[in-house]
């Protein structure tokens, strides 16, 4: 999940969904309420741990932290030098994710199908939004953290891509690599507050409108393919200051050359990785 969240266009929520831990993750985050705080501050740590599924959450967020820190520099290099190949790998990964997430819809209806289409349109529409300029103010960084973390736990909506649209993706990525606390602290504050609020909403939707919620999430995953399309170029606008501002992307078909064949191979590797992960995690436990 941590590695996925570093990639613009790939959602850590998608990884959580296809590995079968998504609802447990949302419910664990939602459990941090007034009762949990009372248990914590009165020293009833065992009851607090049981209520919040603490061991599970610690394992997950430790892994996310390791993934973000460990892969940030590698992925920064990969995007700078092998952008289309890197995106191709994740394009295949997302196609397999659509199948994995969609299979969890138990019953189709006109409402569920409408949710699927709506999710795809919303996620795909994000790809056409022009990126903003970088802003390092405390309040804006906190807002970036809140919005990005909500996207991170939604399958198909990439927190990194939201940061890209908000203009602060490179700023935050560099801050991770350089351990710049002045940037990371307000982003972390926004992440913590955002995930606690958003997990309540998702838990409610899963409890009362499960099929519709899963169809929306499947649509989000499908719509994110527009964001992760490997063959696109960034369009720029020249400002009066002489600097260039990214205004969006221009999509095009690939050239049929050796680079395209490598892209297909990497897309297949990404697809098979998720497919095998789903097969492994869906095996019934013995005993």
Commentary on this structure:
With 287 residues, this protein is mostly helical. It has one domain (2-229, 267-281). Helices cover 71% and strands 5% of the residues. It contains 15 helices and two strands. It has helices at 2-6, 12-18, 22-30, 34-41, 45-52, 54-81, 83-102, 110-126, 138-152, 159-165, 169-178, 181-208, 210-223, 225-228, 258-281; strands spanning 232-238, 244-251. The protein has a two-stranded antiparallel ribbon with strand order 1-2. The protein is globular, with a radius of gyration of 20 Å.
Question: Which class do the helix and strand fractions yield?
Answer: mainly alpha
Q: Could you name the ranges where pLDDT drops below 50 across 5 or more consecutive residues?
A: none
- Give the overall average pLDDT: 78
Rg estimate, integer Å: 20 Å
Order of helices and strands: HHHHHHHHHHHHHHEEH
What about the largest sheet? 2 strands, antiparallel
Q: How many domains is the backbone divided into?
A: 1
Biggest β-sheet: strands ordered side by side in the sheet: 1-2
Note the gap between the termini.
Answer: 29 Å
Beta-strand percent range: 5-15%
Shape: globular
In terms of quaternary structure, the protein is single chain
Q: Give the strand tally.
A: 2
Helix content: over 70%
Task: Report the total helices.
Answer: 15
């Amino acid at each position: 999940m941590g590695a996925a969240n570093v990639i613009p266009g790939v959602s850590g929520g998608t990884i959580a969904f296809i590995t079968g831990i998504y609802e447990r993750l949302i419910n664990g985050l939602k459990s941090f309420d007034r009762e949990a705080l009372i248990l914590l501050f009165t020293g009833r740590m065992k009851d607090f741990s049981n209520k919040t599924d603490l061991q599970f959450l610690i394992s997950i967020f430790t892994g996310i932290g390791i993934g973000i820190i460990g892969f940030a520099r590698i992925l920064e290099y990969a995007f700078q030098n092998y952008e289309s190949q890197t995106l191709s790998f994740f394009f295949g990964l997302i196609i397999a994710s659509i199948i994995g997430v969609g299979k969890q819809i138990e019953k189709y209806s006109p409402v569920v199908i409408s949710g699927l289409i709506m999710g795809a349109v919303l996620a795909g529409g994000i790809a056409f939004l022009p990126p903003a300029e970088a802003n390092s103010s405390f309040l804006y960084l906190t807002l970036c953290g809140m919005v990005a973390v909500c996207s991170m736990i939604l399958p198909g909506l990439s927190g990194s891509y939201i940061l890209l649209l908000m203009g602060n993706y490179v700023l935050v990525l560099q801050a991770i690599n350089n351990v710049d606390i002045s940037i990371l602290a307000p982003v972390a504050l926004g992440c913590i507050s955002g995930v606690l609020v958003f997990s309540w909403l998702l838990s409610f939707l899963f409890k009362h409108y499960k099929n519709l919620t899963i169809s929306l999430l499947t649509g989000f995953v499908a719509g994110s393919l527009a964001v992760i399309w490997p063959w696109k170029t960034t369009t720029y606008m020249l400002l009066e200051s002489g600097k260039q501002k990214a205004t969006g992307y221009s999509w095009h078909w690939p050239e049929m050359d050796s680079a395209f064949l490598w892209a297909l191979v990497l897309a297949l590797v990404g697809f098979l990785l998720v497919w095998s992960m789903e097969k492994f995690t869906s095996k019934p436990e013995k005993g």
